[in-house]
Specification:
Elements: E1 2-8, H1 17-20, H2 22-28, H3 31-37, E2 41-47, H4 66-85, E3 89-94, H5 100-110, E4 115-119, H6 140-144, H7 150-153, E5 167-170, E6 184-186, H8 188-194, H9 196-206, E7 214-219, H10 240-247, H11 250-255, E8 256-262, H12 273-288
Parallel strand pairs: 1-2, 1-3, 3-8, 4-5, 4-7, 5-6, 7-8
């Protein structure tokens, strides 16, 4: 497999890079050489730079650092288009989940339909009115599916960037208004009651087009805080075994077109043990994925 890595170390809480630079944190835990040891060809494109959030509330929309969010989304979209045009597998390592707007803008510009598997402790489905922080990372899934200011919802001349029917959400413990949508949601409680295999099969069955490729987004706070220290912990999260069971499913492996990982905090992971397990998971999944043709 030919992989290209891009770091997007921006985040809406304005924290310094040593907390939010997911990309550099995972690089330091030998992500690249471990992927190469499994036979993957890896090109590291470095990090997007110059998009540190300033905690400035936009007077028109009420969203923090709205103009910066738009600019970085456009830049990320352009970078991702290049990776896709080269027929490489994108592995995007980000500060927070607001990166999804840039990701799906790239697919919109290519005219490519794609499903989303969204793994997160929070649904990130707030509006400006309901968000407790006004941060982009509180609302990116709502914006992605058409809710919010037109400057961001129509950023790539496609509205919405992603249809609700093409989204599967797993592992949330905080619903953030997502019940108002028609998105398929399987929270941690349902996953525990019915089992990962059963809820995954149910989600797949309900997708209108099961043959579309998948973008996999993993906010690491989908994991229980005892396995992954994060800035906004929610109790009773998934285990690594839960994640392995879901992601190693044959249907998932065959259709993953790219992966984004958000919110790993190197400074909070004092001995690096959580990051090492995360790297092991990434390497395991990508080394099993069928090669791009």
């Amino acid at each position: 497999m030919k992989i290209e890595i891009l770091g997007t170390p921006f985040n809406c809480i304005g924290s310094p890079p040593d907390i939010e630079n997911t990309a550099d944190g995972l690089r330091q835990l030998n992500l690249v050489p471990l992927l190469e040891s499994k036979g993957c060809s890896v090109k590291d494109l470095g990090n997007l730079a110059g998009y540190q959030f300033q905690d400035i509330l936009d007077s028109e929309t009420g969203i923090k650092d709205f103009d910066i969010w738009i600019k970085l989304s456009k830049n990320l979209s352009k970078k991702l288009e290049g990776i896709l045009n080269r027929n490489r597998f994108p592995l995007l390592l980000g500060g927070d989940c607001s990166m999804l707007i840039g990701i799906f803008s790239a697919f919109a510009k290519r005219g490519e339909e794609i499903n989303l598997i969204f793994l997160d402790g929070h649904a990130d489905f707030h509006s400006v009115e309901t968000s407790p922080t006004s941060d982009p990372a509180d609302m990116e899934l709502a914006v992605l599916t058409g809710r919010g200011p037109e400057r961001i919802t129509k950023i790539a001349n496609k509205y919405p960037l992603l249809e609700e029917k093409n989204v599967l959400v797993f592992g949330i413990r905080t619903w953030d208004q997502i019940a108002e949508s028609s998105i398929q949601v399987y929270d941690k409680k349902i996953m525990k009651e019915k089992g990962i295999k059963t809820i995954l099969e149910q989600g797949i069955k309900n997708l209108p087009n099961k043959k579309l490729p998948i973008w996999l987004h993993l906010d690491v706070d989908v994991l229980d805080p005892k396995y992954m220290p994060v800035m906004f912990p929610e109790p009773d999260g998934l285990t690594y075994e839960d994640l392995y069971e879901l992601l190693r499913n044959e249907w998932v492996l065959e259709r993953i077109r790219g992966i984004s990982i958000a919110c790993y905090h190197p400074a909070l992971d004092k001995n690096g043990s959580a990051g090492k397990r995360l790297v092991s998971l990434i390497v395991d999944i990508l080394s099993q994925k069928p090669c791009l043709k």
